[in-house]
Amino acid sequence: MIAKSLKGRSAAMDPGIWSKLPPELLELILSFLPLKTLLNLRSTCKHFKSLVFSPSFISKYSSASLFSSFFLLSHPQCYSNFPLYDTTRGAWRKLALPLSFLPPSAAQFNLLSSCNGLFCFSLPNSSSFLVCNLLAKSSRPIQFPFFPFAFEMLTLVSTPHGYKIFLLCSKFSSNYAFVYDSKVHSWRQFDGFQLLLADNFHQEGASFNGSLYFATPEPFSVVCFDLENGKWENLDTEMPRELTFVRLVSNTDEGKLYMVGGIGRNGISRSMKLWEMGDGGNWVEVERLPELMCRKFMSVCYHNYEHVYCFWHQGMICVCCHTWPEILYCKVSRRTWHWIPKCPSIPDKWSCGFRWFSFVPDLYTLA
After folding, report:
1. In the chain, which end has fewer C-beta atoms inside a 10 angstrom radius, N or C?
2. Where does the record place the F-box domain (predicted)?
């Protein structure tokens, strides 16, 4: 009956109906639109433009159907495009993410870190970093503290009022920690931790309770750096026995710290386990990687654990290797392990240099 009454009517919606629609119902309808369509609505009227960028709309629907979340692949031969794996739909995107909006000074860049919808690049030609929101196409250049500037273990950290950039820098016979605060747009310099630079892990810090946590080279231990006062502290906790390598990962939403480590002897891992930091500061075993998957992972990294790195993404702990184009991940809530296959657009001849990042698009995060 309704279909018959609408059959001869114009395709245009009746303004009288839409004007009487409750705002919360209109927002709900808009939340089911594809992202591309939703962004195109910004140019139709001022109300839609302000709505799409409003914090309440973003926080209300970004975790539902509004945005997907992605694994983003960086490789020296990717140039200005990054392959994307849609973790919500479980498929590779056909179109890579373009960077045409970046300034001319970004002709040469290295992708270093990601957090809360933001990415941090280094721009060697302009002696600066570039923090940008790829979805909102906004960016901010940040000059190096001095030049020449050699740094390690750069970590981009989200804060309630913006973000911070942490890094370690070797200068002359000493090393220092530098922290950039987007709230005041300036760098602060602190004493570094010499042991962290010993093996050059290229591993980011794990953000936990206002500090960054790092695993030291063998004999393995955990140290933390307070981002506010710049003080280092050794974590007084007993480490598991027979460790061959250690990586730390944090779930900032739930305030949990995890440790991924190999178990074996003489530097050869025979198994890999996952631990969670307990209330008493001790490590509680959560899960063990199945034997066949462990054999594959150890064979692709050739027991060269310096190439292994980890990161957190939407309930998953991802374990990757610079020499292998696949991701091994653990669904923490289900305690199950899985592989994400190689991107079909990656040539077989590509070898070392694979670097994966968590990409959770967020229109409201400001660079």
Report:
1. N
2. 15-61
